C-alpha cells in the first residue's frame, strides 16, 4: 500500500493570522477615519445652522 504525503505550499498558519490582523486593522482604520470625517461634517453643519449662518427651505 502506497502512502501519500501531502505537502502544503503557501503561507503558514501564523503568517495567515498575522496577515488577517494587519488587513483588519487597516480596514478598521480607514472606516474609523471616514466616520470621524462624517461626524466633523455633521457637527459643522449643525453649528452653522444654530448660529444662523445657513437656513433650510422646505419645498412643498
Automatic annotation (TrEMBL):
* One GO location term (cellular component): mitochondrial inner membrane
Q: Which domain of life is it from?
A: Eukaryota
The protein, known as: Cytochrome c oxidase subunit 5C
The family database entries (PANTHER family) matched by this protein are listed as: CYTOCHROME C OXIDASE SUBUNIT 5C-2-RELATED
Family statement drawn from the similarity comment of this UniProt entry: Belongs to the cytochrome c oxidase subunit 5C family.
Q: Main role?
A: This protein is one of the nuclear-coded polypeptide chains of cytochrome c oxidase, the terminal oxidase in mitochondrial electron transport.
Chain segments annotated as transmembrane: 12-31
InterPro entries named in the record:
COX5C
Q: Where in the cell is it found?
A: Mitochondrion inner membrane
Q: Which UniProt keywords apply?
A: Membrane, Mitochondrion, Mitochondrion inner membrane, Transmembrane, Transmembrane helix
Which lineage is the organism of this entry classified under, starting from the top rank? Eukaryota, Viridiplantae, Streptophyta, Embryophyta, Tracheophyta
Amino acid at each position: 500500500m502506497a502512502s501519500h504525503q501531502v505537502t502544503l505550499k503557501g503561507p503558514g498558519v501564523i503568517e495567515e493570522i498575522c496577515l488577517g490582523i494587519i488587513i483588519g486593522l487597516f480596514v478598521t482604520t480607514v472606516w474609523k477615519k471616514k466616520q470621524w470625517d462624517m461626524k466633523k461634517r455633521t457637527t459643522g453643519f449643525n453649528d452653522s445652522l444654530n448660529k444662523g449662518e445657513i437656513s433650510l427651505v422646505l419645498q412643498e
